[in-house]
Amino acid sequence: MLDVVKAFDRVWHEGLIYKLIQQGLEREMIQLIVSFITNRTFAVSIGEDQSSIHTINAGVPQGSILGPILYLLYVAEFPRMPIDKNHFLGCYADDTALAVKSANANYAVSKLQDFMTDVEAWCTKWRILINAQKSQL
Length: 137
Known about the structure:
- The chain is α+β, with helices and mostly antiparallel strands.
- It has one domain.
- The protein has helices spanning 13-22, 27-37, 66-74, 105-125, and strands at residues 2-3, 40-42, 45-46, 49-50, 54-56, 87-92, 95-100.
- The longest helix has 21 residues, at 105-125.
């Protein structure tokens, strides 16, 4: 099981825009999405004290209808492993489960290691961090 660190908060805006263009979304739709995810700000309030305003440079708004859709479009090209009766890959939001069934433990470990090499390269390219503490092998 792989767990992504702050999945919705860490979506790289430029990478998402690139993927939307590659997927053939119309220019007007991309402009709407860009206006939705950019120029967002936040401040922290504790009691009556408030910090200065800061710009949010990554992520998609959580709690919005569009946020989960944008995240799914962002991770739609997650590396795939061959899916058959001996291989399983399941993704739900920011969690991914993978399994290899084999009578040969070395074969299963080798297949998982090969797949994890692909996952690591893909995550690095798209600025996605895997939470090693919450992930399990």
